[in-house]
Design brief:
Layout lengths: L1 H7 L5 H15 L18 H5 L26 H8 L3 E2 L7 E3 L22 E2 L1 H17 L4 E6 L4 H11 L23 E7 L24 H6 L5 H16 L3 E3 L2 E6 L3 H7 L5
Parallel strand pairs: 2-4
Antiparallel strand pairs: 1-3, 4-5, 5-7, 6-7
Helix pairs in contact: 2-5, 5-8
Amino acid sequence: MKVFHREFFYGRPVSLLALGCVVLLISCRGRGAIHTALTSSADTVPVEAVTGYDYDTVSATGSATGAEPERETGALSPTERRLAEAGLTEIVPDDTAILVHLVYATPENFTGKVLYTDLRRAYLLPEAARMLYRASECLRRERPGLRLLIYDAARPMSVQREMWNLVKGPPQYIYVSNPANGGGLHNYGAAVDLTLADGNSAPLPMGTPFDYFGQEAHIDREDELVAQGRITQQELDNRLLLRKVMRQAGFRPLRSEWWHFNAMTRAEARERYRAVE
């Protein structure tokens, strides 16, 4: 992918690039197979069913016409500049591989509020970004035509505090990291929330919307959920494909959220990095 090469291989010897491609090819040929094909039109749902967002107004880069400011090359908002200065890498959208639609930059999220007032770009730690691009390559080899759709990436602690204050009373608080305890991996740029999208940029059905707080979003008893009719086999297959390519890239899934993947443990992040304010 062009962004991948520009971001991480520019100026490197060709021999290292060739070696990296060989390693990537091997990592993407992991064992096992997804049960059924995922590309038929019946396997997709409108994005508004997942995020409450009308995808007809969203461009391939994830910006909403009339709702979000148009991206200008090199023009960073104060929050985006703060993330970049902290050493995080922007995940540049590529409509053939990775799409970005930050749900918390819209009111169509579980809080009902716009939490990212000036954040439209997705950022991760450099090593997490490399892993994400690797996952994208694995997906391309596994299922050409599908792409990754990012819902959330690095999250400033200032936003984490606001989110916590909004949910600390209701039952949802167990799904939000307490900033008083150091926050979560999103606050380090070491976690990403995402799904799979088809060639029309529509998310594949995963059984629940993003940020659904309930048993149906958990990944530890999915066979039971299928048997009980609470999610379909196709939705489970889509989840399995997402987990497969993310695990091949080195990410670890979160038991309670099918969309959430960590690039490292919380202890590793706290030892090596600082949370972004």
